Task: structure prediction
Amino acid sequence: ANVTRRPARPKRRGGAATFAGNRMALAGANGLTSLNASNAGQGSTVLRESPHLAAFLPLAVRQFLAVVAVAPGTEWVDLASIVAGSPVATTAGGAEILRRFDREVLLPALQRLAVVVDPASEMPCAMQELKAFLDGLQLPHLGPHFTHRAIATVGWSSAACSAPWVETARLEAWAAQGLSVGSLVRTERIVAWVAASLWFRDRRVEVPGRVFHAGVPAWADEEVRALLRPTFRHMARDDHAERAALLWVLLAPLDACHAGTAALGELSGAVRLYVSHFPCMSCLAVLGQFARHVPFPSLEVSFDDAWRDD
Result:
């Protein structure tokens, strides 16, 4: 049988620096802020410093719970994601972190995303409520682990990372990115791949697989762009690659069938989306709006974590 292997991207590791940092953190764990605790844990995870993380994480969890009243959403996400994928999840402290994360961050976020998808809601109000929540909690994303839970909430299904179409999309995305120089976790370096096979009444519309880079699509008019509204937090997020890819899918049947946007509700078929890094909250809302406008096709999405190199 043929075996497809993912070639590792060359990245510099900082094991020595992380080890030194975590030794300092271990020595003064009781003085850590929530930011110190989540950052040190995240750094160890990204750099694969498993022995140091195993020693540090229980102390980080204990200290985080002691000061969590002032922790913003980003710190919650980072530490809860690490805990969820480690043996610490079964300890009393780990279980408490995950319970409180669910109650204070994840479930409220999912509830607001569900309103975005609900066709009975007013879209401008739903997006404004989501933005206010994200701003208040300082929550740009849910991390790779919890984003999978959000995917189902916004009307999509998570495709296996080893699915043949995902492997194809990933390789095309890597080819489009070229040799990595610097961090891939930047808007201009994150790419999306999309393909669709759609039916509008008795007419078939094929959207061949294509890679999209970040950028506000000039080829979509204002009426079409308004169908997938981004949120704004510290920076405009209307240029994210996921939004450009899905706008392309919306535009294809409208152009091919010379139909208005109301016809989107009659589409059937399948849409497949791959993203080189897990979607932010704004892009999760974009996925939800797409599912709201096009409720009948099978919608699949897969993503990687660009912080990792395996």
Observations:
- Strands lie at 157-158, 192-200, 203-212, 232-233, 235-236, 267-275, 298-303.
- The first helix runs from residue 15 to 27.
- Residues 141-303 form a domain with the Cytidine Deaminase; domain 2 fold (CATH 3.40.140).
- Residues 1-27 have pLDDT under 50 and may be disordered.
